[in-house]
Amino acid sequence: MVLKAVLFDFNGVLINDEPLHSKLLEQILIAENLRPNPDEFREVCLGRSDRACLSELLARRGRVVAADYLDKLIIKKSQAYLQQIAAIERLPSYAGLKDFIFQLKAAGIVMAVVSGAVRSEIELVLQRLDLAQQFAVIVAGDEIWQSKPDPAGYLLAVQRLNQRDPALQLQPAECLVIEDSFAGIAAGKAAGMQVVGVANSYPFHMMQRLSNWAVDYLSELELERIQQVFTGKTSLLSDAEG
């Protein structure tokens, strides 16, 4: 078995924008005459799609809305996100991200984004970070109904990568997932993939407990070591334990 693809989460992995999402969700609730609770963001929303997040936030407050009304709330939040991102001169990304991505490209490993975020948000950020050309496939939250921890997004990414290049013959076990949330780690594992938990949103010890491999920073990921794990020449578990 060899490493053929790396599938990246978006929020909290490619861009440090989770505080912005938390603020925008609070604004949505206030506009709905509902009281926000900042502590709920990590519990309810981190790693999940806007649809899943807003549905639960509303349900916790006794509010049941029709699907089309929920769509309007999602669109409203996304428009606000795009406006704020466009106004930021230098987007908050993570140390080591671009170096790791360019190592993968040089090694011929294909990359995809699998996220609960809206596609327009992902595309804008990737363009602003000058990374849009590096990702062969995007699976966005407004394209599928199932939110992480459901593995559907990761499995769809494999399907789309194979459609794009049938010669790839990609299998889930040949993919590495990069995640920062509990829901995302669970989704990657349920898809039959190995998962690196990067401690951007939760402490290292939590990532270590849940993922196959944990790092504090993406700059700690060594591609040669990762490839050795997939060929069975070294142990992923030994790194996670160390």
Order the strands across the largest sheet as they lie in space: 3-2-1-4-5-6
Low-confidence stretches: 237-242
Number of domains: 2
CATH-defined fold name of the largest domain: Rossmann fold
Structural class label = alpha/beta
- Alpha-carbon distance between the two ends: 24 Å
Could you tell me the radius of gyration in angstroms? 18 Å
Overall shape: it is: globular
Total helices: the number is: 11
Fraction of residues in H or I helices = 40-55%
What can you tell me about this protein's structure?
The chain has 242 residues and is an alpha/beta fold. It folds into 2 domains: 5-16 and 92-241, Rossmann fold, CATH 3.40.50; 18-87, DNA polymerase, domain 1 (Orthogonal Bundle), CATH 1.10.150. Helix content is 48%, strand content 10%. The chain has helices spanning 18-31, 40-45, 50-60, 67-87, 97-106, 119-128, 152-164, 182-190, 204-210, 223-230, 236-241, and strands spanning 5-8, 110-114, 137-139, 175-179, 194-198, 213-215. A 6-stranded parallel sheet has the order 3-2-1-4-5-6. Residues 237-242 have low confidence and may be disordered. One of its GO terms (molecular function) is catalytic activity. Belongs to the HAD-like hydrolase superfamily. CbbY/CbbZ/Gph/YieH family. Its cofactor is Mg(2+). Pfam families: Hydrolase (PF00702). This is HAD family phosphatase.
Observed structural traits:
single chain, 242 residues, alpha/beta, Rossmann fold, DNA polymerase, domain 1, six-stranded parallel β-sheet, globular, PGP-like_dom2, HAD_sf, metal-binding, Beta-PGM-like, magnesium
